[in-house]
Amino acid sequence: MKTLVIDDSRLARNELKRLLAEFDNVQVVGEAASVEEAIEKITELKPDLIFLDIQMPGKTGFDLLEQLEIVPEVIFSTAYDEYALKAFEYNALDYLVKPVQKDRLAGAIAKVIEKVEKKETEKDNSGDKLTMHDQVFVKDGEKCWFVQLSDIRLFEVSGNYTTVYFDKSKPMITRTLNYLETRLDEKTFFRANRQQIINLKWIERIEPWFSGSLRIYMKGGEEIDVSRRQTLKFKDLMSF
User: Which of 64-73, 112-121, 216-225 has the highest mean pLDDT?
Assistant: First the structure.
């Protein structure tokens, strides 16, 4: 499991690398001392997991996450335990307070391994597309989330933005629907019309609609009209 250590303290990075060296399934492929350096290393090395300090000069660990398009698994590592609640609001897998204890580290790594293995299984079948176990970082105003793609039921155009539907939240992102369509696995996400991409796993029922088109009812309550052109593709995809 490729791992990147991000911390502005060289001593902290060295200590964490020393502890991680005892785990055979963890390969530390690099380290970074700032947000800018971390972004370069994440783009270059594509780690499965990052250990992320929160308080760093200039920009915080949260600022880093806001700049990533696709977010690796994240374990926060910091001396400031008052950040714990905020970290879990970001849906990090775990939160380690310095000095890091070996037993807590082992528990955190076990969580990551289980999740990464699921992602790797899906990657074998989806190529470069994002899988259901991939997560994206969504920020809308002061609110931020890590969202697993399996939890997103709908992407919908909203002016110059795209609204992301998951749980009871509907934040907006700057990515276009056309871009998302190129990145999402077509076996799971379907372009129903010019305005909406739906998660096929969230379909509750389907009914015939006007002029041979379809209406889809989502488990979240949304009603989606499939265009006539896309209805043909949908029927072929679903083996109607």
Answer: 216-225
